């Protein structure tokens, strides 16, 4: 299927991805990973929950960790332009038959909890508590010096359908991988904020979260993180990279947190704000689409993902063939 024409006047205006809420089994272990090793800043915490932000972020949190018996993802959250756009989002999801709920979320104004076409929990809000800037408090920079959350990537059983749904709510495709034989999408990168992606979709058992990415200042910060992780007990948490992606042209590293939630450290993609930007097509058989330098991704990268809370992913949701890249 060809990718859809961009929907330049969506039913409501999403600005960008905002934050992710992870269920984690051991808050102390997760803090050692996200705060002491990666360098995210704690903005609030109690015995069961930790709120984190990255160095450039003015909103209260880009990640919430809550104590849980099993690892899971509670929801993926997006910021809309203003309160009227939030009401439009509510009305649109309701009109499409998706469940809608107004939920209480600390440090956020009115928040809409709903689901996408695969029942993946997504939330929208327009207002979050603002914090003083810390991007020039250089004494606070640690770890990989994470600047901001950059994107989500989700495993879905049918990438064409996912692109269709998210295109309706305004996400525009920047790059995609097509299976030459079936002409089906194998993966697609879609954005609202003017980078390569806010949310990408990868063919696989789903919906599950493949990874959450953080933007860092330079590739050298990634090398420093590798040196740190490999000498502080995290060598087996390093999964793929470092390398340069073909798709997005970003410098990357994939690591796994103590519960197996995958984090991508991501540096330097390109601007995509033009409404008439042509999406870039890649052939599934081209090994350089993943890593420009040719190194293949490990098997775990195609198979391992985080489940959403309460969302059973059965065999029937296996992605279409070929589920694993050649
Ligand atoms: C790719 C994956 C990403 C990303 C950009 C490009 C391509 C790939 O390795 O399959 O997660 O952020």
Automatic annotation (TrEMBL):
<keyword id="KW-0058">Aromatic hydrocarbons catabolism</keyword>
<dbReference type="GO" id="GO:0051213">
    <property type="term" value="F:dioxygenase activity"/>
</dbReference>
<keyword id="KW-0560">Oxidoreductase</keyword>
<dbReference type="GO" id="GO:0004462">
    <property type="term" value="F:lactoylglutathione lyase activity"/>
</dbReference>
<keyword id="KW-0223">Dioxygenase</keyword>
<dbReference type="GO" id="GO:0008198">
    <property type="term" value="F:ferrous iron binding"/>
</dbReference>
<dbReference type="InterPro" id="IPR018146">
    <property type="entry name" value="Glyoxalase_1_CS"/>
</dbReference>
<dbReference type="InterPro" id="IPR000486">
    <property type="entry name" value="Xdiol_ring_cleave_dOase_1/2"/>
</dbReference>
<feature type="domain" description="VOC">
    <location>
        <begin position="16"/>
        <end position="127"/>
    </location>
</feature>
<dbReference type="Pfam" id="PF00903">
    <property type="entry name" value="Glyoxalase"/>
</dbReference>
<dbReference type="InterPro" id="IPR004360">
    <property type="entry name" value="Glyas_Fos-R_dOase_dom"/>
</dbReference>
<protein>
    <submittedName>
        <fullName>Homoprotocatechuate 2,3-dioxygenase</fullName>
    </submittedName>
</protein>
<dbReference type="InterPro" id="IPR037523">
    <property type="entry name" value="VOC_core"/>
</dbReference>
<dbReference type="InterPro" id="IPR029068">
    <property type="entry name" value="Glyas_Bleomycin-R_OHBP_Dase"/>
</dbReference>
<dbReference type="InterPro" id="IPR011981">
    <property type="entry name" value="DHPA_dOase_Mn/Fe"/>
</dbReference>
<dbReference type="InterPro" id="IPR050383">
    <property type="entry name" value="GlyoxalaseI/FosfomycinResist"/>
</dbReference>
<feature type="domain" description="VOC">
    <location>
        <begin position="148"/>
        <end position="268"/>
    </location>
</feature>
<keyword id="KW-0479">Metal-binding</keyword>
<keyword id="KW-0408">Iron</keyword>
<comment type="similarity">
    <text>Belongs to the extradiol ring-cleavage dioxygenase family.</text>
</comment>
């Amino acid at each position: 299927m060809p990718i859809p024409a961009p929907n330049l006047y969506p039913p409501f205006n999403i600005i960008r991805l905002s934050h992710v809420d992870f269920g984690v089994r051991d808050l102390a272990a997760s803090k050692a990973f996200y705060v002491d090793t990666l360098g995210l800043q704690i903005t609030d915490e109690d015995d069961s929950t930790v709120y984190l932000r990255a160095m450039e972020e003015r909103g209260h949190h880009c990640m919430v960790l809550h104590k849980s018996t099993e690892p899971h993802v509670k929801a993926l959250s997006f910021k809309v332009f203003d309160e009227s756009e939030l009401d439009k989002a509510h009305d649109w999801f309701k009109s499409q038959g998706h469940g809608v709920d107004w939920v209480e979320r600390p440090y956020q104004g009115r928040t809409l909890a709903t689901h996408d076409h695969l029942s993946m929990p997504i939330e929208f809000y327009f207002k979050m508590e603002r914090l003083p800037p810390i991007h020039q408090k250089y004494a606070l920079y640690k770890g990989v010096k994470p600047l901001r959350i950059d994107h989500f990537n989700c495993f879905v059983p049918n990438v064409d359908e996912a692109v269709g749904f998210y295109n309706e709510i305004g996400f525009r495709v920047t790059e995609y991988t097509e299976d030459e034989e079936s002409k089906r999408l194998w993966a697609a990168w879609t954005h609202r904020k003017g980078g390569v992606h806010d949310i990408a979709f990868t063919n696989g058992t789903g919906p599950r979260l493949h990874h959450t990415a953080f933007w860092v200042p330079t590739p050298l910060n990634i090398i420093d993180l590798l040196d740190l992780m490999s000498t502080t007990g995290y060598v087996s948490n390093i999964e793929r990279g470092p390398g340069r992606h073909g798709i997005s042209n970003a410098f990357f590293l994939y690591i796994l947190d103590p519960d197996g939630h995958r984090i991508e450290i991501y540096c330097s993609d390109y601007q995509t704000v033009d409404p008439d930007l042509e999406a870039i097509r890649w052939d599934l058989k081209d090994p350089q689409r993943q890593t420009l330098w040719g190194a293949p991704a490990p098997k775990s990268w195609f198979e391992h993902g985080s489940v959403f809370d309460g969302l059973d992913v059965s065999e029937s949701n296996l992605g279409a063939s070929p589920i694993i890249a050649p």
